Amino acid sequence: MGTRVDGLTDMFGPEGPSLRELAVQALSSVEHGYDLLAPKFDHTPFRTPGRVLDAVARALDPLGPFDDGLDLCCGTGAGVRVLAGLCRRSAVGVDFSAGMLDVARLRVRPEDGPAVGWVRGDARALPFTAAFDLVVSFGAFGHFLPRELPGLFAQVHSALRPGGSFAFPLGAPVPANHRAFWTLLGFDAVMRVRNALWRPPFVMYYRTFRLGTVLAELARAGFTTELRALPEFGRRDDGSPRARLVVATKSAAEPGG
């Protein structure tokens, strides 16, 4: 949901990164690559579209109120803006790219509302325990291999207070007869070859975060999960939603840690 494949040519505009800059990024580590991309990230199609952010905010609003929120892998802070409109006390962004956080600090400065904070850290080793009522994430899961999901979801579970929720948008699978399907498939194939031949690896895959696996791993981490259609994106020919909000809730009876 966080990436608009059909707009890839936008990144070559005057404000976006050049092809050479993208090549240098792709041959770096994930962390250093995003440090390099950070100043121009918001001018690429990799940034979560505003209509996705707005749809998620509308879907989450009835589930509140929330006191404290965390944006997991916050990048330049678009999701923290969503939290700032939903949370009464604090909205925190965590990311392991110092460059992305530097941009976020400059671009997200709400004049009123909750306190906003930024933490440099790894989502697989969060420095929080029972600190948040809501955790969100937008378009970041391609940076985690399937085998890392149990640990990632366990970290989020630990960071939430009892009764807290972990929410993220998820698009329906692209059908095989759509051009984007082959674009995604080709991208993943290129990245696998790149990572087999070049170190350090750059983990970014589009087709590894599958709904069935995700739901199973969320349950294993102790969450109760529901799927909420995002009506702004309509429905497919078979009647299923084009986009859903996954809302995974920690039991109110569980201890904080």
TrEMBL record:
Entry keywords, A to Z: Methyltransferase, S-adenosyl-L-methionine, Transferase
Alphabetical list of InterPro entries matching this protein: Methyltransf_25, SAM-dependent_MTases_sf
Listed GO MF terms: methyltransferase activity
Keyword Transferase annotated: yes
Record Gene3D superfamilies: Vaccinia Virus protein VP39
GO process terms (BP): methylation
Residue ranges annotated for the Methyltransferase domain, each copy included: 70-164
Name of the molecule in the record: Class I SAM-dependent methyltransferase
Species of origin: Streptomyces graminearus
